Amino acid sequence: MSDALPPLAEEQIFSVDTLLKYMGNDDKALAVVSKIVRDACAPGMAPMQQAAVALREERYTDAGKILHSLRGSIGTLGAKRLVASSLKLEQAIAGRLLDRVPALLRDLESEYQLVLQSADGWLQGNAPPGGQATPA
């Protein structure tokens, strides 16, 4: 497996098109995917804050678990840039390359904010009739 990752500009910030397609690309799929997006984004920046606290407290295993969980839940939303950014940070933590962690954490926070903004925009434009799009 190569350590080389594609440049972030070539990756997606957020896209549930594939998920919608696999679920039937109809109103029912839209309702389910809208709920998935709302649920995945509901914690807002809390996971990033929790990871930052764990890092400050030198609880590296906890920080890695938080980031891994975030990567898994948000990665299902087609957030390829966030996945790549999180993976770099997780690897730096696991390898105890602690001098890299602050910059990688800032990058991941920026990517996560972009995902939350994009998800909120998607919800505003695609929420099913009668569904409530809550801000991310």
TrEMBL record:
Pfam family, one: Hpt
Domain HPt: 26-122
Modified residues annotated as Phosphohistidine in this record: H68
Keywords, alphabetical: Phosphoprotein
Protein name: Hpt domain-containing protein
Gene Ontology biological process terms in this record: phosphorelay signal transduction system
Record flagged with keyword Phosphoprotein: yes
